[in-house]
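#onboarding

Welcome to the new folks! Below is a worked example of what a typical request in this channel looks like: someone posts a single protein sequence, and someone else replies with the predicted structure as tokens. Don't worry about understanding the tokens yet, we'll cover that in week two.

Example request:
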Amino acid sequence: MNEMAQPAAGLHGFQWFLTDEDLANRPSIYAPGLFAGKRFLITGGGTGMGRAMTFLLARLGAKVMIAGRREEVLADAQEAVKRLTGQHIEYMPMSIRDPDQVDMLLDRVFGEWGGLDTLVNNAGGQFPQNAVDFSRKGWNSVIDLNLNGTWWMMQGAAQRWRDHDQPGNVISIVAHVERGMPQAAHTCAARAGVIYLSRTVATEWAPLGIRVNCIAPGAIASEGLSKYPEHATARFRNVNPQRRMGNGWDIAEGVAYLSADSGNFITGEVLTIDGGMQMWGTVWPAGVPEHFNVV
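Example response:
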């Protein structure tokens, strides 16, 4: 059962996201040792949904490398996983916006591990704002991170899988964009790009033994909600017909599903984990405009 808001220090006076202790002890449907010998690279693996993936995959026996811009966050995740699960993970500070840093990361992974089984493109970000007010710098920043950075990672991994004559698996965290994303048009454009890139190269790269899929989360309780105004996040539990928020564990188990043998006949797909929000509900991360605020 998903965790709901609890009175504790955290976002707007509540701890909405799973703690490290939760991530270390939360039951999983997957068997211990499922990913023994498997190698995972997770961008943005130190916080939020990425941190949940890191804990779950490490608990299931995988070798895990996490990457992100802030070394202190990555080091904290490494320490927490070791302290609470006894598993060791690797980390490397870098920015996926920089193709040279992407190459350094992938060269390290393939050099030290001899290959890679699954790349999880989890790094990304955006800010809530009406599209008419986007600055050019703000637009370019979100597109460069969410679309270009994800592509550098996808292409770089695929090139190395091809050159090493190894199969591969790409999972990119996106969003469900079919109905658009009011007050997040920049990330909607970028995530749609990633989805259709993935569907295209899923066909191109199939002869190389590379599967390519996406996961589209709905309203997920995580540290990232601190970027949104309180009056907007207060209604996030009511933006899907289940009338609750998901959490990082929901997304982490989706990653496990697509990475295990359960996903070996799935490619070019978007796994939507959103409590039904794609059918009913709109987030409005900057708050509902008066024009739409009707009973």
